[in-house]
Amino acid sequence: MHVTMDQEGRFLTLHAEAELRFHAIWLRDNAQDTETRAPGNGQRLIALRDIPDNTRIASVEAGETMVHVTFAPEQKSVAFSVEWLIAHAYDIKARADIGWLSDEISVWDAGLQADVPTAAFPSLSEDGATLAQWVEQVARFGFGKITGGPIQEGALFQVVDFFGFVRETNYGKHFDVRTEVNPTNLAFTGLGLQAHTDNPYRDPVPTVQVLYCLESSAAGGENMVVDGFACVRRLQEETPEYFDVLAQYCARFEYAGEAGVCLTSRRPLIELAPDGELIGVRFNNRSLAAVTDVPFDKMELWYAAYRRLGEIIDDPAMEVVFRLEPGEAFVVDNTRVLHARKAYSGTGTRWLQGCYADKDGLRSTRDALFRSTQEAAE
Amino acid sequence: MHVTMDQEGRFLTLHAEAELRFHAIWLRDNAQDTETRAPGNGQRLIALRDIPDNTRIASVEAGETMVHVTFAPEQKSVAFSVEWLIAHAYDIKARADIGWLSDEISVWDAGLQADVPTAAFPSLSEDGATLAQWVEQVARFGFGKITGGPIQEGALFQVVDFFGFVRETNYGKHFDVRTEVNPTNLAFTGLGLQAHTDNPYRDPVPTVQVLYCLESSAAGGENMVVDGFACVRRLQEETPEYFDVLAQYCARFEYAGEAGVCLTSRRPLIELAPDGELIGVRFNNRSLAAVTDVPFDKMELWYAAYRRLGEIIDDPAMEVVFRLEPGEAFVVDNTRVLHARKAYSGTGTRWLQGCYADKDGLRSTRDALFRSTQEAAE
């Protein structure tokens, strides 16, 4: 490996397939030696205030797989693996496209119908590889199904145990969705709900929802999911200014439907990271409050964009439909994938239990399982 | 009240102290009649798809306190209160300043030392007005203290019950911070920690933290809090490009210090809403991972900004210090206020229990208590 440094010691250049530059201050702050990072948990032991402001590279020496850097004025030598440096290179062209997505994510439409990420409950309990694959798919597609689980109250908590922790809310640790479908109320329950994300009036929103079926004797009532990221990217392709106006201005959401509760939030329908990564979608006609943060001269555009987004969400070409039988469940990324229930077409009962959880646990489980697989293979 | 409409029926103008225009589509979507909004819980019963695309104002009639609008083509008449319209007016100049703050928030520095928001545990349990005032202050200042609580394990959950729900994590429903301070380890525990926000490697972060004291026989070990919003606004005043670079690029955080856990996040140190509202600060030297989303030509600027922000955070002029005695606790908004522990100066033991919760519950409790006070007064 060939490595050079600039005359002032401000940065070094790794001459790999591309030329990758790394600043002295960045290298020093990211040193992996045991005085900088705790060997056990990897947490940094020093703060930036412990690193001299005038830190520079005094000398650099390259081996086959390691680069040895001596920093001045500390006169401290640290070794970096070339592999680690290449993996963490930042001397690369920044993404310029608004609405870009992480490689961990794949968008989908109705074409995913035949490939719904599904795993059997007993396999998830017993087999780390099945769990690893399933959580990877749930993180990738934003939803996943579980079959063959116990038909008993509270079994949904065992689903959460696979990857995280329940987020309790004013609705409880869990909530019950029971429906008696008979000719008298068929018309009403037959109305269905527009696909939506749950609880956008909460901040932070619950980032994962679990719905677990315990009874299902009524025909119909299928569950439907729509990829909110696919929908807003289609909106962006059709009419870029629609995407932009929904990302640039905050909407408001509210729920004050029970005593002691007055939940409000101010967030955009399309949420971007500061560098344009698409990181969240909120869509819920029932709890959208009066939108007051869009200026007068943009309000008609905002409403046109909101209407078109709703039409895309309602387009059957975007939806994946599945039916939950007793002992089956689905998990949904509530920052991305919208869900709804289809109309019932026969009499009977339906009983689901639902709860909220968080996505960081899902991603952590995925990465920890991947890491342990890698370590086992080494 | 004088109200006019434009020739096409696209909007009406309320001639109040200022002229306030409201679009037909906005008015129709925000109608408060019982066909549009559920009388019980206030949730919207229709979606935008149920409102004609070519909705316009057919006629408008103004009374003293109400405005009656008839919409075409539905031929639907809806009454709006003038008070509600003025409260929800959006025909106003948008905020142009980056880093603006909601009126609900007051920034502070060491000057708040004598006025730490504090309430007695028994009063919070028994007196709605005390609870209302305390949660308003915690939401406003981002932290608050409780005195006179029970000295028993798990009492911190009673603190959470005042306003919300515990956010369980891989650290459990709660965690214990026990310190034996003696001459042998005094030097080590005396190191102290730089002020930080907790768990920035989680996404969503736990937005509230509770720390509850059960034992405190060692001298020193005071708790210290710093207003992250005040710090980043000071950074902005001193060097606007420092503020901007920390807001425009994502940092990365990681914690993989125990089996089965690999938590990672990609978020900026300074988080803004799309319209520039300051909504979050993340600062934690221990769990900052290699920052790879800042381009090469901005990295030295980013590090200079990060260093200066750390210096401001370390400035005693920014900090409020208090000591927790057994039965005392503090609550902190973990999206805004940094906390730390000062060094110990004597031998003894110290035992705190901590847990996480969420801010939406805090704000909901505040607003619900305010609403019930208003209703009682009417």
From TrEMBL, chains A, B:
Keywords: Dioxygenase, Iron, Metal-binding, Oxidoreductase. It catalyses: N(6),N(6),N(6)-trimethyl-L-lysine + 2-oxoglutarate + O2 = (3S)-3-hydroxy-N(6),N(6),N(6)-trimethyl-L-lysine + succinate + CO2. Its cofactor is L-ascorbate; Fe(2+). Residues 118-356 form the TauD/TfdA-like domain. Its EC number is 1.14.11.8. Residues 17-85 form the Gamma-butyrobetaine hydroxylase-like N-terminal domain. The keyword Metal-binding applies. Belongs to the gamma-BBH/TMLD family. PANTHER family: GAMMA-BUTYROBETAINE HYDROXYLASE-RELATED, TRIMETHYLLYSINE DIOXYGENASE, MITOCHONDRIAL. This is trimethyllysine dioxygenase. It comes from Cognatishimia coralii.
